[in-house]
Automatic annotation (TrEMBL):
A Pfam family of this chain: SIS
Organism: Deinococcus hohokamensis
Keyword Coiled coil attached: no
EC number: 2.6.1.16
UniProt keyword list: Aminotransferase, Cytoplasm, Glutamine amidotransferase, Repeat, Transferase
Location in the cell: Cytoplasm
CDD domains attached to this UniProt entry: GFAT, SIS_GlmS_GlmD_1, SIS_GlmS_GlmD_2
Source species taxonomy: Bacteria, Thermotogati, Deinococcota, Deinococci, Deinococcales
Residue ranges occupied by any Glutamine amidotransferase type-2 domain in the UniProt entry: 2-216
Classification via InterPro entries: GATase_2_dom, GFAT, GFAT_N, GlmS/AgaS_SIS, GlmS/FrlB_SIS, Ntn_hydrolases_N, SIS_dom, SIS_dom_sf
The protein's name: Glutamine--fructose-6-phosphate aminotransferase [isomerizing]
Active site: 2 (nucleophile), 601 (for fru-6p isomerization activity)
Reaction(s) the record says it catalyses: D-fructose 6-phosphate + L-glutamine = D-glucosamine 6-phosphate + L-glutamate
PANTHER family: GLUCOSAMINE--FRUCTOSE-6-PHOSPHATE AMINOTRANSFERASE, ISOMERIZING (PTHR10937), GLUTAMINE--FRUCTOSE-6-PHOSPHATE TRANSAMINASE (ISOMERIZING) (PTHR10937:SF0)
GO molecular function: glutamine-fructose-6-phosphate transaminase (isomerizing) activity
Length: 606
């Protein structure tokens, strides 16, 4: 999710880069840096922290030059500090790169490079790319970049320059990259807002594209070196719309970013060839006898999915606690307890205090966290980063599905390590997890989104809503109700479907919409029985069904179909429908979904 800017032309590159990076700081604010060339040398300047730190230094001692590349970082590998900041240069400083993404095989590549005499300065995976390009370079920068990329696996948006060439070479796979075309000048960025002050003529690069830009224009090829034709498109967005990627709101943008966010969460961790999960945590799976998952709000519901997955796959007792209650109930904790805290920001005060309470009792601690360098990460024994990227909308979307995916990987890892999950079952679930970005992309197809919008508008005047789910999707119902409450202000409740008859059934009448998660699962028949109980009391049933389930559609007033998925990964796919139902209900009511009343993105007071 890092921000990238590149420039070549008649202007002072420093001004263009800082302007562009300021429009991309929402993509990463751990550090920022630039490399600027004046025809004789490339000078790198970078600083940890917000872009303002770098801007102040450059204002005091400007860098002259009309070619440059810049970066604002959302840390993945390596702490957010000056050394790990981008750009990264080779030992002689002649080749400089910026990179967005994750190089899956960087460790093996790094070991080989060190053995061949290369010296590394940072802890990042990105620096590997600079050294690979240096090794391949023999006078042609484009060919050197192409050769280097042939050795890497993973996701990248990479921008490279060399002191001997007045050109910039870039490439993308998974990570976004857009090129701006001006008069006698060329631009690169990871998102359109960075370029709108200078040009509205854009070329949106595709996966596997490479591009060379210089003062005369650009050339696009594939990774095999074949020339490609890419159309220049005129962008008519205003600046605010551009920051939202053309979407009306940050929340909708972030809903649509979920295939990318899930790719970032899963990439480099699932290995089909060995059937292994690599989480890069120093945790002994046999050192604890029970797990406590501690979180607030949306993260709490992700933890409930985690409870189900871990108990099913790893056969370890799990309990899930609301963080605000955990430290006040004198919890039973010992050195045989693994305490897992879940937080998008890593700053939620209730969860932070609960973490400290668990540590007092001797528990081993693990965090499922989005923000690197946050308060929790400094106190945890281990951290499983979800790499969802910055989330601007107050109501969590992509962070939630990434947290659930992280719990899926953790459950797989524990199950295989403890011998409770067979190799065949593990391989099946690993494949299902790998499919998640594709399934979520399918769930966001226009015809599916339009159907959800129609359902939302049909019931948007309801005063109350009920959400029901069973098994691993009971927490999905809780999350669906929370989303609706957060942004539409409609009173909504959620229950495990089998619990409805133990009280909530009294609420059901002809004015109550009841959204039921009834996708393919071993409890589907029982869920449909609960639906019949709703229908018998004239409730309005909205069924969320797996593709192709026409038999159960007869039990609904309205049907929302989602892609068919393995039961254990279905909470991620089903959450998309819940998010969109809440979103379109709120917009039909004219609510500000990005800034719902009374809520803050990170709750840092008790």
């Amino acid at each position: 999710m890092c921000g990238i800017v590149g420039y070549i032309g008649p202007k002072q590159a420093q001004d263009v880069l800082i302007s562009g990076l300021s429009k991309l700081e929402y993509r990463g604010y751990d550090s920022a840096g630039v490399a600027i060339g004046d025809g004789a040398c490339l000078t790198v300047r970078k600083k940890a922290g917000k872009l303002a730190n770098l801007s102040s230094e450059l204002a005091a001692t400007p860098l002259a030059g009309t070619l440059g590349i810049g970066h604002t970082r959302w840390a993945t590998h390596g702490l957010p500090n000056d050394t790990n900041s981008h750009p990264h240069a080779t030992e002689d400083g002649r080749i400089v790169i910026v990179h967005n993404g994750i190089i899956e095989n960087y460790l093996s590549l790094k070991e080989g490079l060190i053995a061949r005499g290369h010296t590394f300065k940072s802890e990042t995976d990105s620096e590997v790319l600079a050294h690979l390009i240096e090794e391949a370079y023999s006078g042609d920068l484009y060919e050197a970049v192409r050769a280097a990329l042939g050795q890497v696996r993973g996701a990248y948006g990479i921008v490279v320059t060399h002191v001997d060439h007045r050109e910039i070479v870039a490439a993308r796979t998974v990570s976004p990259l857009v090129m701006g075309v001006g008069e006698g000048e060329m631009f690169l960025a990871s998102d359109v807002p960075a370029l709108l002050a200078y040009t509205r003529d854009m070329v949106f690069l595709h996966d596997g594209d490479m591009v060379v830009i210089n003062d005369d224009g650009f050339r696009v090829t594939d990774l095999a070196g074949n020339e490609l034709q890419r159309q220049i498109e005129r962008v008519e967005w205003d600046a605010e719309a551009a920051e939202k990627g053309g979407f009306d709101t940050y929340m909708l943008k972030e809903i649509y970013e979920q295939p990318q966010a899930l790719t970032n969460t899963l990439i480099g961790r699932l290995h089909d060839e060995t059937g292994e999960v690599n989480l890069d945590i120093n945790l002994d799976p046999g050192s604890f006898k029970r797990i406590s998952i501690i979180a607030c709000g949306t993260a709490f519901y992700a933890g409930l999915v985690g409870e189900y997955l871990i108990e099913q796959l790893a056969r370890i007792p799990v309990e899930v606690d609301v963080a605000s209650e955990y430290r006040y109930r004198d919890p039973l904790v010992s050195e045989h307890t693994l305490a897992i805290v879940v937080s998008q920001s890593g700053e939620t005060i209730d969860t932070l205090e609960a973490l400290r309470e668990a540590k007092k009792g001797g528990a081993r601690t693990l965090g499922v966290i989005n923000a690197k360098g946050s308060s929790m990460t400094r106190e945890l024994d281990d951290t499983l980063y979800i790499h969802a990227g910055p989330e601007i909308g107050v109501a969590s979307t992509k962070a939630y599905t990434s947290m659930v995916s992280a719990f899926l990987m953790l459950a797989l890892w524990l199950g295989r390590a403890r011998g409770t999950l067979s190799e065949q079952e593990g391989a099946e679930l690993l494949h299902a997890a790998r499919e998640l970005p594709r399934l979520v992309e399918e769930a966001l197809k226009p015809e599916r989104v339009e159907k959800i919008r129609q359902v939302a508008e049909k019931y948007h005047q309801a005063r109350d809503y009920l959400f029901l789910g069973r098994g691993v999707n009971a927490p999905t119902a809780y999350e669906g109700a929370l989303k609706l409450k957060e942004i539409s202000y409609i009173h909504a409740e959620a229950y495990a479907a089998g619990e409805m008859k133990h009280g909530p059934i009294a609420l059901i009448d002809a004015n109550l919409p009841v959204a039921v998660l009834a996708t393919e699962s071993r409890l589907l028949e029982k869920t449909i029985s609960n639906v019949q109980e709703v229908r018998a009391r004239a409730g309005k049933v909205i069924l969320i069904l797996s593709d192709g389930d026409t038999e159960n559609a007869q039990h609904a007033d309205d049907v929302i179909y989602v892609p068919r998925a393995h039961e254990m990964v279905s909470p991620v796919v089903n959450a998309i429908a819940m998010q969109l139902l809440a979103y379109f209900t709120a917009t039909a009511l004219g609510k500000d979904v990005d800034k719902p009343r009374n809520l803050a993105k990170s709750v840092t007071v008790e």
